[in-house]
Amino acid sequence: MNKKQKKMLVRIIVSAALLIFLKLLPAALLTPLEQALPGSVYLLWLALYLLDYLIIGYDILIKAFKGIKNRQVFDESFLMAVATAGAIALALYEHSSDYTEAVAVMLFYQIGELFQSYAVGRSRKNISELMDIRPDYANIEKDGRLERIDPDEVATGSIIIVQPGEKVPLDGVVIEGSSTLNTSALTGESLPRDITAGEEITSGCINMTGLLKIRTSKEFGESTVSKILDLVENASSRKSKSEDFISKFARIYTPAVCLSALLLALLPPLIRMLALGLAPGWETWIYRALTFLVISCPCALVISIPLSFFAGIGGASKAGVLVKGSNYLETLAKTRIVVFDKTGTLTQGVFEVEGIHHSELENAKLLEYAALAESSSSHPISKSLQRAYGKEIDRSRVSNVREISGHGVIAAVDGREVAAGNDKLMESLGVSYIGCHSVGTIIHVAIDGRYCGHIVISDIVKPHAAEAIKALKAAGVRRTVMLTGDIEKVAARVGGELGIDEIYSGLLPAGKVEKVEELLAAKDAKEKLAFVGDGINDAPVLGRADIGIAMGAMGSDAAIEAADVVLMDDDPLKISKAIRISRKCLAIVYQNIVFAIGIKLICLVLGAVGIANMWLAIFADVGVMIIAVLNAIRALFVSRV
Q: How do the domains of the chain map onto residue ranges?
């Protein structure tokens, strides 16, 4: 508990103890005082009850007064103040000397408020834990000593040092050292990740073992940790339709019940007196009106609905899924069509050599020639050849490099002309080549005009990709679609391997947008379409879909910016998890709306006809709020969703 909650707990205990004392105090003990000073016991009783009332309710009275002063009258503080102060006034009018109901209503209301405050604190704990990824400093080496500076002051390209146990403050590339990283705050996964020199490192993770030297690649404001914190901090500003409904409902509902209570207090007595010639019974009807006010407090709805969404967003972030607002959580729950980009989303975007066929040289020698010829290119295919070669490239062996766009590369390697590329390159050189039945990118190699074989390079399917498609089907997604710029044969292999329903290949970025437009136009109006992507070229599609889901670990900044949901560990299996979390959250929201409004309406009717008293009013207000808040907290627990 924080200080404010502890202070409130003390007030509740003191007030409850005083109320119990006043109820149990034998009247005989006060008889001598009444005999000595007639009327003194009545005044003492009133003073003690008022003291108890002020101990537990002074802040509510202050809030109500400020609301009236600021012309924002109709809120729960105003309702509680009017109802309880009215109950005291009624007891004074009747000379009953029993003010228990007024104090008890305020006491139980404050117990409910404390419970709600504690519940919100628990739901915020996940967000607070996520905020712990914010780095406090970065280490810069100066004159042989480490100097701590603000991460905001570190320029791109600077060398920073991260010691064991410290948070990585900025994105960059490890230039020296190896270590194990704790990435659980970013991805929701408990398994550590090993990192060595030459690999990219993400800010926000914790260096567990070795000393690392990192060359920064982004300023702090553009780093992964900064973007994550910004997403989480702004999530609550994007409200769902359910939250908007509750806000509008409360603005109309509260004045309506205040007017209804006033009419309940005035009309029946006046009708009895003027039309029926009966005693007006002011006390009875004012008591019913005050009971009506207590019952009518919309606390359960106003508190539990935003809390449900807040807890859902917190639970999702704990699982490594960042949802940018409760409105997106609501949309995600209605997702029935999921459209995927291929490279980097369903596949790792890392090309690897899968085979060498029809080689007239040793396989290693053919790979060496191809890697050297492609060594000047930054294309992913060239990089994959160099990785497969596995040795340091001696550029002195390579000369006269000519890169032919869309065809391949021709270069002199050890004085021999090496051509490495696709079918078109071989055809342009007049070299007869052997076709390949394997699916993937085929690199034909010709040396001095003679065909020497070809190398098969393929993108690797992500480990959980097939499982992710099955999980989506199990979660109620009726249609899965894959859009890719790859050739039909490659797309068909990946789509068939994963069990994708529909596959569209050979698409440029504009073609992907057009295809998503077609899918949106053809779907049912109640269904929502999600697009999952990672690259810069996916940003327009992410923005056009009903809900965009981006890969956060390796995805481009543009894709993350355009998306509504970010998967922090790039695992497509998390999509079905996110959908299940959102549906659980939305189910809790609907449960609370039906339960709270249903109980309120029943109790309001009972209160108006005189069946419900203040004690039932306390249940209808505080009891319903506590039950709704308890139900809302369930959205936090997502491990078994």
A: 3-128+238-309+586-636, 326-346+462-563, 348-461
Q: What is the pTM of this model?
A: 0.66
What radius of gyration, in Å, describes the C-alpha atoms of the chain?
A: 35
191: pLDDT confidence band, cut at 50, 70 and 90?
low
Work out whether the CA dihedral 81, 595, 104, 94 comes out positive or negative.
Answer: positive
What DSSP element (H or E) covers 495?
Answer: helix 488-498
Asked whether the CA dihedral 67, 73, 77, 78 is positive or negative, the reply is: positive
The active-site residue, picked from 52, 75, 341, 564, is 341
Tell me the two tokens of residue 293: 């006010």
Let me know if 341 is a catalytic residue.
yes
CB 291 within 8 A of CB 90: no
Task: Give DSSP secondary structure letters for 33-54.
Answer: HHHHSTTHHHHHHHHHHHHHHH
Closest CA to 323 of 236, 247, 202: 236
CB 541 within 8 A of CB 512: yes
Determine phi and psi for 499, rounding to 5 degrees: 85, 30
Confidence of residue 162 (pLDDT cuts 50, 70, 90): very high
- Specify the DSSP class assigned to residue 155: P
Is the domain covering 326-346+462-563 a CATH 3.30.43.10 domain?
A: no
Q: Kindly tell me if the per-residue pLDDT of 435 is higher than 70.
A: yes
Q: What share of the chain is helix, strand, coil (3-state, %, to 5)?
A: 55, 20, 25
CATH architecture of 348-461: 3-Layer(aba) Sandwich (3.40)
The whole-angstrom separation of Cα 266 and Cα 260 is: 10
Sequence-distant (≥ 6) Cβ neighbours of residue 211 within 8 angstroms: 161, 162, 163, 164, 177, 179
- Cα distance between residue 215 and residue 85, in whole Å: 66
Strands 441-447, 450-461: pairing kind: antiparallel
Q: Residue 208: which residues within 8 A CB-CB, separation 6 or more? A: 164, 165, 179, 180, 181, 182, 192
Tens digits of per-residue pLDDT, 78-118?
777 777 777 787 777 666 666 787 788 788 778 877 776 76
pLDDT tens digit sequence for 473-511: 999 999 999 998 777 888 888 899 899 999 998 777 778
* pLDDT of 378 over the 90 cut: no
